[in-house]
Amino acid sequence: MGQTPTIRHTKVLFHVPQQLSLPRVVIRFAGDSGDGMQLTGDRFTAETASFGNDIATLPNFPAEIRAPQGTLPGVSSFQLHFANFDIVTPGDVPDVLVAMNPAALKANLKDLPRGGVIIVDTADFTKRNLAKIGWDANPLDDGTLEAYSVHAFDLTGLATGAVAGFDLTRKDASRTKNMFALGLLSWLYSRPVDGTLEFLAEKFAGKPVIRDANVAAFKAGYAFGETTEHFEVQYHVDPAPMPKGRYRQISGNVATAYGLMAGAYKAGMQLFLGSYPITPASDILHELSKRKDVGVMTFQAEDEIAGIGSALGASFAGALGVTTTSGPGMSLKSEALGLGIMTELPLVVVDVQRSGPSTGMPTKTEQADLLQALWGRNGEAPLPVLAAKSASDCFDTAVEACRMAVKYRTPVIMLTDGYLANGAEPWKIPDLEAIEPIEPNFATAHNATTAKGAPSFEPYRRDPETLARAWAIPGTPELEHRIGGLEKGDLHGEISYDPENHERMTRLRQAKIDGIVADVPDIEVDDPSGEARVLVLGWGSTYGPITASTRRLRQTGRNVATAHLRHLNPMPANLGEVLAAYDKVVVPEMNLGQLATVLRARYLTEVSSYSRVRGLPISITELEADLIAEIDALGKEN
């Protein structure tokens, strides 16, 4: 790389690194659960977003409240992909690994490509800690890392020295090492610092010693980068071109919370959330509980059943009832979901999917609740199912779920997953006034007459276009009616055991959901050449890996088409036609082929299932290689 330039002064020799621009970088911060890696990654992300780069993140942490310190199960990591162009995933593998202890190094080393950069804290590389993770020798000395560019520093010691002037215990002083590392990486990748300084001032406003020590450690890390001669290059990643507007960094859970608030606002209804905390959905409850200022009411229930019961009760009373959960909680909510279908009341259920079954891997991602969402209830119990494709898309999907629930008087399931929930990306803040209003159309007057000609109210008289029943808020004069889980008589809503009535009501409830297809836009196919023979069809968070891998494929000159489903029930009217137009349809999913099973049954067409259930997003590199094999095999057939 040539001789490193220096600037000579009278007393001090300053090291001036080479300046290098990069289009993209993937950094992974990894350490013990108590090392603050999620906070470090989040702060680096926030500054990167404010700088104007496109970003995508992947937090990855253990489910245990506190795994044994220094062990492999206790490793927590945060991966950030940032670029000067549009990106759609947090990247398969890191370019840079920041490892705060031996366990973090060992757990993540297999993902780092040859030539990758390792910045490692040497403080804990003792014989005891190495033995704890099965290393007999120190990898910093035995040649294990010779294929990588290694920068080994005693970050803990440097941070402790930087805060020596503060009245801190040895333990508290060592905890500032994450801020020292953040300062160093902020210098190395030319990140802004003001936002982090403001964040620390606000977060520790009530603890001035902790605040000042963390600020000192952060500044010391930045200064260390400027003055050390270990780094020959300082990197720059220019801002990404984006449409004009006001942006913020947003996670899927926060976007979902905002979408629910926007949906209730556009309907002129109070938002009521009844939920039981469960990983990885709890942040939606946390976010909405802060928003009493805009009329949001939240109730932390004692269990999943109480959560959905309270939300359904709120809908009965005229509010927009919402409940949030993950896979195990969906199982518990199934009976009350059936009650919502029978009473035909609006209800939004957000399922943030995680690895199962049972407790499974609660902090890892998966897409294995699709069949449960579609059919996991007793009896014929149809309802709409939507899935968000990205963290920012959670907002739009949540608004649509609210609209659908209110318009069609039905529970709606919105699927996200742990990857979307905790991952973050830039989000262009929408104009609320540009979002179409949602009309609840409450019943306020009689809608029928008795046999004697007197005015009456029939709660199951339906809108001829939507088949939605009349919705009267309790207490509306003269619109008293009976409601509950027993089968309803058509129109009048009284309890009915008549066989013909049950079949009619069952078919009406199904027809109402089927009719929602009128509001579902046709699926759009991205096929630039118009000559592709392979269609890659995704749903939910597979959007990112599918988009990234097919971009690469097209750069090799191969033709491939893509399409993505938000509406999983009912599906777009033109989907069967689209499937029939291609010789091969590949469906990547983080399950064992659930959507593929549904498509085969519904459209009587063969699709190729591409399944991964590792608790991680689908690998871009692996998907690209497998799609190349599919495309090239078709070409050889000719």
UniProtKB/TrEMBL annotation:
The lineage of its organism: Bacteria, Bacillati, Actinomycetota, Actinomycetes, Propionibacteriales. Gene3D superfamilies: 3.40.50.920, 3.40.50.970, Pyruvate-ferredoxin oxidoreductase, PFOR, domain III. SUPFAM superfamilies: Pyruvate-ferredoxin oxidoreductase, PFOR, domain III (SSF53323), Thiamin diphosphate-binding fold (THDP-binding) (SSF52518), TK C-terminal domain-like (SSF52922). InterPro entries: 2-oxoacid/accept_OxRdtase_asu, Pyruvate:ferred/Flavod_OxRd, Pyrv/ketoisovalerate_OxRed_cat, Pyrv_Fd/Flavodoxin_OxRdtase_N, Pyrv_flavodox_OxRed_cen, THDP-binding, Transketo_C/PFOR_II. It comes from Tessaracoccus lacteus. This is 2-oxoacid:acceptor oxidoreductase subunit alpha. Residues 263-462 form the Pyruvate flavodoxin/ferredoxin oxidoreductase pyrimidine binding domain. Keywords: Oxidoreductase. It comes from the Bacteria. The keyword Oxidoreductase applies. Pfam families: POR, POR_N. Residues 34-223 form the Pyruvate/ketoisovalerate oxidoreductase catalytic domain.
